[in-house]
Amino acid sequence: MLNLSLHAIQFSIEIIATFAFALSGLIAGIKKRMDLVGLFIVSGLSAFGGGTLRDILLDRRPFFWVSHSTWLWGLIGVCLLAMFFMRERHITLTEKAIQIPDALGLGLFTALGTQIALELGMPAIVAALMGMMTAVFGGVLRDICCNEIPKAFSDHQPYAVLAFLGGWVLIGLSELNLPEWLTLFLSASFTTLLRWLAIQFKWQLPSQKGTHKN
Amino acid sequence: MLNLSLHAIQFSIEIIATFAFALSGLIAGIKKRMDLVGLFIVSGLSAFGGGTLRDILLDRRPFFWVSHSTWLWGLIGVCLLAMFFMRERHITLTEKAIQIPDALGLGLFTALGTQIALELGMPAIVAALMGMMTAVFGGVLRDICCNEIPKAFSDHQPYAVLAFLGGWVLIGLSELNLPEWLTLFLSASFTTLLRWLAIQFKWQLPSQKGTHKN
Amino acid sequence: MLNLSLHAIQFSIEIIATFAFALSGLIAGIKKRMDLVGLFIVSGLSAFGGGTLRDILLDRRPFFWVSHSTWLWGLIGVCLLAMFFMRERHITLTEKAIQIPDALGLGLFTALGTQIALELGMPAIVAALMGMMTAVFGGVLRDICCNEIPKAFSDHQPYAVLAFLGGWVLIGLSELNLPEWLTLFLSASFTTLLRWLAIQFKWQLPSQKGTHKN
User: Which of these, A161, B157, C26, C176, is most buried using a 10 Å CB contact count?
Assistant: First the structure.
């Protein structure tokens, strides 16, 4: 694995992160009892929204879903399977069922987005923001489609800030001349783990006067 | 008409589709009793939103409303006329008054968007999605501006899926070496007609367990 | 000051307008009792949203916040300061506290956006619309993040229309061969002043039948 080209590593991470967010969108859509088209739209936007925003901002073409369009067929297949599967049985999907793939995608897209921006010569803080936007935007689109206030904005639990920190971890590690895959892996694990801890222990961001009015 | 250049045909379709969506936006704005500025914004976003998204994704410039900016004056004129006209009389605009131009624009933009993406060498499924997004996004912006949940997401009647199918009709027909105008016409008619039938006969998309919770 | 290069003048205006919108976002976020991350997101989107949309539509790169990324650090600093400051004392921020920087940013971004579009050879009406979108979009994002219906759409007080008019003032003045800074200053003052008068005297846009239903 150490000999893999950087491109192959980035490609693998893009796939896993895309899959994780597609899954989070699929579960969110199933919870809302969406029809097949709704499921495809919400899982597709979750999966490809962040990467597409990143590529528009960085002026990169083609998009992932254009150059690897067979994955779109896969997504349609998964939505069909999910529809038939859910018709058969009563499964109660908890909020946690979304949070696990969401945390995984958050970490992976953060690391990848930050690294791609660094490669294109962006300043460190811009790279960290690009990583954060890549990671957060898919979930924002998912929540908007499900007619819910985006977790990234409403939640007092840390979400976007962890992606931002994870971006800085990648920036710091990339100074150390570690193998690329290790840098990506460590940064992604950092973000995903912290998000997981934040959910488990109900971490709260410091807020004004400690009272929350929305 | 058979001798018209492809560019002239595409241009005509862009105009008719733009006009149809502008009309749907105008009616939606009038129903909401918007002021002149609101009318211009909602009809402009309906009319040019889908094509602009398509051009950003495909990295095409200039946008339609930049290269044919006189149409913007036309839109302002239409909004002014509509304002004065509506002041004079009480007209009850039904939901159907929006659905007819909406269905027309849906078919035309789908066919056009799919064809433009094919010309740029996109894979078939990407072209069909680009067509769908071109057709759907203007209406989504219209519904957001009117503070309503987008029809494309909330409706259990087929909408986006018909655009997606219409894109595949165009892709199939373009294999047959028919004249370009006929290909575009057949694909657009297919989508518009199906959307119309879906509304008339209240077609429902298969949903989970047949119950709808939103 | 008369000898400043056009680029230096545009740069100064971009900074002041960005700062004004960041402030309006910061105040809006504080009113909603957002946490530090929310404050940074809402003030950042208010500040950089309009200019980024303008640059995507005009295909300009790099974005302001990429080429001057140190300003992002400044924004983080300001948000931190605001957090600590607000913890210490009870300050009641009125709606007016947002309207003043909002009106200032509206005028400046309108003038700047219109001028940049003119320089790139856009037709006059497109330039005026680009100016309007530059000025309005940041505030739209701010209001969406605060879970409020965007002022630009809901308000029957003139807002976007003043930006549109301000764009035409700049277009008219730029025919007169005045110094660039004077053209920008006059157009921006026109828009900001009119917006201020609109708020003070509760100007209303002509609406249908004079009744407002939303």
Answer: C26
B27-74 pLDDT, tens digit each? 998 888 888 888 898 999 999 999 999 999 999 999 999 999 998 999
Q: Residues in chain B whose beta carbon is closer than 8 A to a beta carbon of chain C?
A: 30, 32-38, 41, 52, 56, 61, 63, 65-66, 69, 72-73, 83, 86-87, 145, 147
Nearest-angstrom CA–CA distance, B135 and C95: 39
Cβ contact (<8 Å) for A33 and B156?
A: no
Q: In this complex, do C208 and B33 lie within 8 Å of one another by their Cβ atoms?
A: yes
**How far, CA to CA in Å, does C79 sit from each of A200, C5, C139?**
28, 32, 18
Whole-model pTM? 0.89
Asked if the structure places residue B148 within a domain, the reply is yes
A126/C72 CB distance under 8 A: yes
Does residue B209 belong to any structural domain of this protein?
A: no
Q: What are the structure tokens assigned to C167, written together?
A: 């764009």
Number of folded domains that form chain B: 1
What are the angstrom distances between the C-alpha of B3 and each of A126, B17, B112? 52, 22, 19
Which domain range does residue C134 map to? Answer: 6-204
Residue B212: inside a domain: no
Distance between C134 CA and the closest CA of chain B, angstroms = 14
Q: Residue C170 has what pLDDT?
A: 97
> Which tokens belong to C60?
């300009």
What are the pLDDT digits (tens) for B95-107? 788 888 999 999 9
Mutate to test the interface with A, among B53, B149, B153, B156 (most CBs of A within 10 A): B153
